[in-house]
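Hi D.,

Good news: the full-assembly prediction came through. Inputs first.
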Amino acid sequence: MIDEPGLRQRKKLQTRTRIEAAALDLFERQGFDGTTVEEIAGAAQIAPRTFFSYFPTKEDVVLADYAGRLERIVEQLGDRPPAETPWAALRASFVVVAADYDTQRRELVRRFRIMADSASVHARSLQLQSGWEDALAAALGARMGDDTESLTSRLLASAALSAMRSSQRHWIATGQTTPLPTLVESCFDQLADGLADLG
Amino acid sequence: MIDEPGLRQRKKLQTRTRIEAAALDLFERQGFDGTTVEEIAGAAQIAPRTFFSYFPTKEDVVLADYAGRLERIVEQLGDRPPAETPWAALRASFVVVAADYDTQRRELVRRFRIMADSASVHARSLQLQSGWEDALAAALGARMGDDTESLTSRLLASAALSAMRSSQRHWIATGQTTPLPTLVESCFDQLADGLADLG
DNA sequence: GTGCAAGATTGCAGTGACTGCATAAATCGT
DNA sequence: ACGATTTATGCAGTCACTGCAATCTTGCAC
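Then the structure:
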């Protein structure tokens, strides 16, 4: 079942990579809003129409690898021992993914910068995260044996993403001086212990 | 300094209301994406071009009163005694606004339904909430005497909005059987006491 | 009231993201 | 090498949104 990647697959991946590279470069030099799909297509040597068979929206080029992360988090969550507390399981799952972030530091910071520059990319990012929240809440609901729309699983999923977002933002703002997993652990722990006495 | 609302102001408000009414009606009948600005303008008896001098985007008609709520929350936050814990101050502020929600129940449920139907309205809502988070984090930072970009104030603001969103969603999903302020209090308390033992 | 300044409405032309459809080109399995 | 399946492309169209200039309405000073 190991697919030798045929020429077709290889070429498609190449093109995709070429589009991403060209787009990110243009975004950095002209700004996201100052760059048209036509320009990206030109720089990537494809027809403008073809762009949209690789990415559903212009924004998604910047957030290309977001989808994969959700899968990894949910996957991690499925691997956690059932005896573990939901919050502990969430914490462990997110820390694993945060470690990946540290690995791809340069690339991610690049994309974050573009996101910070453009309102529409940021909006799209939040929209995707909202989808993650749904998936997480569902996974937690299953884990906790709830059939119904549970307020608790929602709150847990939402709080976890809050911890992640806050950590990311601080990580970027401080020039990645503290490793991201450390920040994530810290945020998760604060939420674990309660916010009552903070500040 | 009490402005007697001149004819000008009154007319403008009327038009705005007429646009909102026409738009919401069309959205409910044809779906958000199935309704064009041209149609809304026609139904509201204005020129299409005029629509955009009342609302910056089509999405904003659905979220028209969002802006006011942030102001009220930040205002409430400013009125809380400085001795109070940040989280306690946040809780109190949000509960006040949640009470307003209960008052305007019918209208809000209408708008929430449209938002649930349309991905772009939902995205826009998240974007606006992100702006609130910035404002809240700044207000908390000031309250706590932080000059710097503080991880803690971010986390508090973000967690507060998570509590609000989760409560709202549950409120809508359960047909508003439990009053919203009660749900909000419950979520804030769970975050205050810590998520470690939940589930 | 009359006239002038400020504000509101409108039309027009344009940009740019995105889509459906039909056709051509490349690649795959046989 | 050949038919089937993908993939690339061109074309025409929709729609949100914008800048600009002209026009009309309201507010206000006199």
